[in-house]
Amino acid sequence: MTQLYSTLAEIYHEMYQHVFDYEKEFHFYDAILKTNNCHKILEIGCGSGMLARRFLTNGYDYLGLDLYNEMLDIARREVPSGLFIQGDMRNLPFDRQFDAILITGRSIAYVIENKGILDTINGVHKSLRDNGLFVFGVFDANQIFDNFSDFEQNINHNGKKIRRISHLEKNLATGWTYDWSAKYIIEKDNEISEFNDITTLRAFTRDEIALFIKLTGFNIEEIIDEGKAFTIVAKKTL
Ligand SMILES: C[S@@+](CC[C@H](N)C(=O)[O-])C[C@H]1O[C@@H](n2cnc3c(N)ncnc32)[C@H](O)[C@@H]1O
Q1: In the chain, where does the domain assigned CATH 3.40.50.150 lie?
Q2: Ligand 1 pocket, 8 CB below 6 A?
Q3: Which ligand 1 atom is at minimum distance from the Cα of 43?
Q4: Is any ligand 1 atom within 6 A of the Cβ of residue 47?
Q5: 45 CB less than 6 Å from ligand 1?
Q6: pLDDT of 202
Q7: What are phi and psi of 185, to 5 degrees?
Q8: Start-end ranges of CATH 2.20.130.10 in the chain?
């Protein structure tokens, strides 16, 4: 199991402010939500609250959910006015209350079994009002599996140097799954610490997504291509 959202949660928070363009991501979701008149939203995989702040500033009725308390502690610290709850996307506790549900940061990649995916999407369906919107991004199996290559990232955050060396390997145990091992080398004030992390992620083909969506009572409205990933905009039909 990954340490990235527990032991390494602060490192994630510092690092990903330079990895993701949260401002751009917010505008991406905001445009979809506005087009579909969605105001009351749930963000699944809200992490350290970097989108939460923007949703709240822009007047959304917002709730963030994440599996890891360490991430939620940071979100509550960073966005004191935000509402965040701990939960597992495979077991959502809501009933028909949201206009839209977003799974951000491709967080569904951590749900690697078909049953878990179906439980997640069925739970999203149950949590949405009639005609509610479900927006989620996934890694594209066609892109990921066509080009497995190691990569390295170097981030400077407030005088801290974070270096991450990543290695990807096919796993294929439960679909288009792959193992991501990463070595973190962190340097601050001439002190160096190192951590190793390994986790399994799942990518999807468009056909797989179409089947999951069909089986759970949604209609795909749009698929937005993002290179190694794509985002699905789906509407609750039944
Ligand atoms: C790549 S991070 C994205 C976080 C945030 N959306 C961002 O963009 O920075 C993936 C997030 O999914 C959360 N997560 C992983 N498995 C989960 C699950 N089963 N249920 C809810 N959240 C989960 C992790 O704790 C983590 O915060």
Answers
A1: 9-140+204-236
A2: no
A3: 6
A4: yes
A5: yes
A6: 98
A7: -120, 115
A8: 143-202
Q: Which residues does residue 201 pair with via DSSP β-bridges, in sequence order?
A: 178
71 CB near ligand 1 (under 6 Å): yes
Q: Which residues fall within 8 angstroms of residue 39, CB to CB, at 6 or more apart?
A: 33, 59, 60, 61, 99
Query: Residue 63: beta bridge partners?
Result: 42
Per the CB < 8 A criterion, the answer to whether 184 and 195 are in contact is yes
What's this model's pTM, rounded to 2 decimal places?
0.97
Please provide residue 134's backbone torsions phi and psi, each rounded to the nearest 5 degrees. Answer: -125, 120
Q: How far is CA 152 from CA 98, 172, 182, 184, 185, in A?
A: 39, 24, 9, 10, 11
Cα(68) to ligand 1 centroid in Å equals 8
CATH code for residues 143-202: 2.20.130.10
116 lines ligand 1 (CB under 6 A): no
Instruction: Measure 180 CA to ligand 1 centroid, in angstroms.
Output: 16
Q: Ligand 1 atom 10: the closest Cα is on which residue?
A: 107
pLDDT tens across the length of the chain (238 residues):
899 999 999 999 999 999 999 999 999 999 999 999 999 999 999 999 999 999 999 999 999 999 999 999 999 999 999 999 999 999 999 999 999 999 999 999 999 999 999 999 999 999 999 999 999 999 999 999 998 889 999 999 999 999 999 999 999 999 999 999 999 999 999 999 999 999 999 999 999 999 999 999 999 999 999 999 999 999 999 7
CATH number of 9-140+204-236: 3.40.50.720, 3.40.50.300, 3.40.50.150, 3.30.780.10?
3.40.50.150
Ligand 1 center from residue 158 Cα (angstroms): 24
